[in-house]
Design goal:
By secondary structure, this protein is an alpha/beta fold.
């Protein structure tokens, strides 16, 4: 088992125990996330690594989207399974121009508000944010804006490094898909997508293009850190 797989197991165990003692759970989870961030920043092949948060209201389709983006599955689960705490998916992507590989960490964050005190630890070292909501649930439109404030705005992630995804089980929702105006404006209207089984392959292509911008931003940030160390 790699360190991330072990981390997820500990995270889920901490979450379950946190139902009895949420403060102790937050201590465990905070320590775990800090350890994971330090460990994952060191790549044995010296590749750049980007960390992308996938956040949104409960049952909005975050795990379905994460599976699509990580090329695990293009179909939603027939049975709803609540994400306990956080699920981390690791995979590689290649820049089409330079053919350079880089690692991607996709953090599928559960929508349970009970662990809100642990969110600052989860946000640590994040490079970008994918906001997910269900356009068929009216309350989700307002809730996803709150998730933007908590995970992107408060963490200094700019709008061009945010992706807004409306998740549905049917392509019929595309006809009535109207993204929240605030988030559509923040992302420049370009990083707004609809996810359903029919659109999954194209969304993965669009996400890869989005990752190029994330990679470039992360590389520039790393260069500034190295310059400051030299100075």
């Amino acid at each position: 088992l790699n360190c991330q797989a072990v981390a997820v197991c500990i995270f889920e165990s901490a979450y379950r125990r946190g139902t009895e003692n949420p403060h102790r759970c937050c201590f465990w989870v905070t320590s775990l996330c800090l350890s994971v961030c330090v460990t994952s920043s060191v790549d044995p092949n010296h590749r750049m690594s980007v960390k992308v948060l996938v956040v949104g209201p409960s049952q909005s389709g975050k795990s379905f989207l994460s599976n699509v983006l990580a090329d695990v599955s293009d179909k939603p689960s027939e049975v709803y399974r609540k994400t306990e705490g956080c699920r981390i998916l690791e995979f590689e992507r290649e820049l089409p121009t330079s053919k350079q590989n880089f690692a991607v960490e996709l953090w599928d964050v559960g929508g349970d508000q009970k662990l809100s005190k642990c969110w600052p630890a989860i946000q640590r070292e994040s490079s970008a944010c994918v906001l997910v909501y269900n356009p068929e649930v009216p309350a989700n439109c307002k809730e996803v804006e709150q998730w933007y404030d908590k995970f992107a705005a408060s963490n200094g992630i700019p709008g061009n490094l945010c992706m807004l995804v409306g998740s549905s089980t049917s392509a019929k929702s595309t006809q009535a898909f109207a993204p929240p105006a605030k988030l559509s404006a923040l992302t420049g209207g370009k990083n707004v997508h609809l996810l359903c089984p029919e659109t999954a392959p194209q969304l993965r292509v669009d996400f890869d293009s989005f990752l190029e911008k994330v990679y470039s931003s992360q590389r520039a940030k790393q260069a500034r850190i190295e310059e400051d160390l030299i100075a």
